[in-house]
């Protein structure tokens, strides 16, 4: 405990003792029973004075206050005032100074939640990493030696040097990765820049977290679509499918419930009765992992009752596109005409036909990737597409083939999923499906928010794709609502912090494939899933042996980042590093599979970890580097785009250091300097230019002798180009404000005076205009300006003629059953939704928040199941399957279905008995639809990757008689 806090507690304690003592100056001597609420109490000045003292102590001096937000993987991004006394943070207070954009719409004030408001306590707790430390025992044994920053930098830089300059290893055996404990536009740039400059390996966080909206990427070419949350106030129907905004969107949930009072209908679709369901107009309980079936049955009702929008479908979707019935492929221009050269051939491959009702002939649709016409304006081209029908066309070789529309094929798929047919699978009554279909199709404005949980099933890609397709059928874009996954704004110029203008590139790998390989995921897959499971989850199309062969070939195709060949249907790049520098990523808590940690540590010979606190990952590191926490740094954060403000982090004016922690920019600049120093030692100079592929280094090498200068932009080339100086957190924020045009004309001083934030300008518009007085929702540029989506066809995608999609789902929307075993042996589905009392693992060990819950890991069990199993509330239970086991406290609940267990996620393994967390029973797998690559816009990158799945582990439970919490 710091001195100032100790003094404060002494003052508070003394005051309390004085009040409690008999004969105290302020003690009540004439206590009376007050029946009238307006009746004045006797002397209360003692209480008032106590609170005045506390307020005065915590408030400090206004001119010394700081600002901050919490840069963990939370979509809130809330502005807080940071108060302090004598350089020590005493508390945080909601800034609540965001301007109102429209008097008819509620504002964003105040933002914050129960997690962020106690960070001022957590930052001084005992689990804080105060000094650089070196492991002196076995990994995970907990034996550490405090070392100096110079010694720590020497160790880490030497390991980097050794692997970089080894001719048999090089940059591809080095990993420098920033996890989701550091999501900002400022500080996060430090490890990213370091990684880029070295050509090191890093993986995509959204993918390995299971937060990659791959189904939305199929539909729109972009997974992150949606709205700022004030849009919820304007809707007629708000559907939360797999979501729980009252718990996971605390700063924004008021828009939802204020919207309800404004006339909106709120619908929640979840397996469990959660905090949002209790306030909804309609709660639809659904069996876990069957959301895609419900979406298909909703489409069935919309199509059957002609509640779809034909005019919208003709322009903005690929539903009128023609499909060849002989090979199920889209009819392309290359089928009809011979190109004159290679460039034309490429364009012809990406041009598509419809049947023009006006002429009775096929017509090329404008706006596709290969089209010379760059808008979706079919009226200008004299085209009125047919949505239904079958015709015969003549190919360039004279062959005649039958064709039909994508819509016709969709209808045939949908016919298999009537509400009556899906009821047994989903548990949703047909009448409820019909109500849901009408509530989505008929109102003017409908926003469907998909929770992150929907990605975390083996076939989760179909959950999101099918829901997006409901939006496409009903004309949902822009002011009419649509799909809401996670909005992002356009931010340009920030590459100046993390990159080098293309001079250097990192090795960017797949998140879900990378972690699958790291954790020997195939071993758990083979052990846990049966041939029956695989066949069920692939519609009977693929056996377990065939699946394993396909995945192993796909992994081989992407090993060490090899380029994909045209023949390879599956591809995702990955590497296996020997040296790793990991920032704010509790890998051993979040990753699935009982053997992940063991497999990762076996492959990684050296592992340095950067964070402000201890975690399961930190416990197994070789070197610990202490980082400053959110209230001790300069930083800036915009994403995600749930509001239009960018928040500032600026520490107290006289902030006292906490241990020897460094901000990430100072830390990595220090490592860069040490690496440059090593490179310039006489014995090393000949090896300082590390050869690398020109794919990753324009010059063909990495210049380690000039590393610090390039990192900080103090080299001659950077200074000549007038690149901003870097190397500290404050310099990074100044550079971001200077380089990002969406931040203009703001400065740090203006942000501080405004209340710790700036308001994005109109250039932040991404898929819609960012109006000054209206909430934002995606899709207006396409809806009104007829700008194409970033998809192969330029439209919302209903049809993918990649071989895997044709085999598994007939090319269009479909539903496949869950992969999780469905047997009496493992009768319960374990679900781990977002927690009320933590942001993932952040603040999970907060004493304040633990007092508000059970204080130990707990699992909600259905009341009837608990009674059958002889389990009482508070009992310790064993949760187990073929992969492993863990223990948790039972929370007997009526909010959980009999076939489901619900456990709020985020508990670190060390918080469980025997250091075994819930991932002990969760298998690893890869979905072939997400592994598919090389088709149109489905090419690996930041917009196309897969997910790591959390909800494929079926388990059994029993009361523990030997072990208890």
Notable features of this structure?
single chain; 965 residues; alpha/beta; 6-stranded mixed beta sheet; 35 helices; 32 strands; globular
Explain what the structure shows.
By secondary structure, the protein is α/β, with parallel strands linked by helices. Among the domains are: 1-59, no CATH class; 310-411 and 779-809, no CATH class; 828-959, Barwin-like endoglucanases (Beta Barrel), CATH 2.40.40.20. The chain has 35 helices and 32 strands. α5 runs parallel beside α26 and α10 packs across α16. The longest helix is centred in the first third of the chain and has 18 residues, at 3-20. Residues 1-32 have low confidence and may be disordered.
Q: What is shown here, in short?
A:
With 965 residues, this protein is α/β, with parallel strands linked by helices. Among the domains are: 1-59, no CATH class; 310-411 and 779-809, no CATH class; 828-959, Beta Barrel (Barwin-like endoglucanases), CATH 2.40.40.
Number of helices: 35
Strands side by side in the biggest sheet: 5-4-21-20-19-6
General shape: globular
Q: Please compute the radius of gyration using only Cα atoms.
A: 29 Å
What is the element layout, followed by pairings?
Layout: H1 3-20, H2 45-59, E1 66-68, E2 80-85, E3 88-94, H3 119-122, E4 133-135, E5 144-146, H4 149-165, E6 174-178, H5 189-198, E7 201-203, H6 205-209, H7 214-220, E8 237-241, H8 245-248, H9 253-261, E9 265-270, E10 282-285, H10 291-304, H11 310-316, E11 322-324, H12 333-336, H13 342-348, E12 353-356, E13 361-364, E14 390-394, E15 400-405, H14 406-414, H15 419-426, H16 430-441, E16 446-450, H17 460-473, E17 481-484, H18 495-498, E18 507-509, H19 511-518, H20 521-528, H21 531-537, H22 544-558, E19 579-583, H23 587-590, H24 596-603, E20 606-611, H25 616-619, E21 623-626, E22 635-637, E23 645-649, H26 664-679, E24 689-691, E25 701-703, H27 707-712, H28 716-720, H29 729-739, H30 748-754, E26 757-759, H31 780-785, H32 803-809, E27 828-831, H33 847-850, E28 858-862, H34 863-869, E29 876-880, E30 885-893, E31 900-902, H35 928-931, E32 954-959
Parallel strand pairs: 6-19, 7-18, 8-9, 8-16, 9-10, 16-17, 19-20, 20-21, 27-31, 28-30
Antiparallel strand pairs: 1-2, 2-3, 4-5, 4-21, 11-15, 12-13, 14-15, 22-23, 23-26, 24-25, 27-32, 28-31, 29-30, 29-32
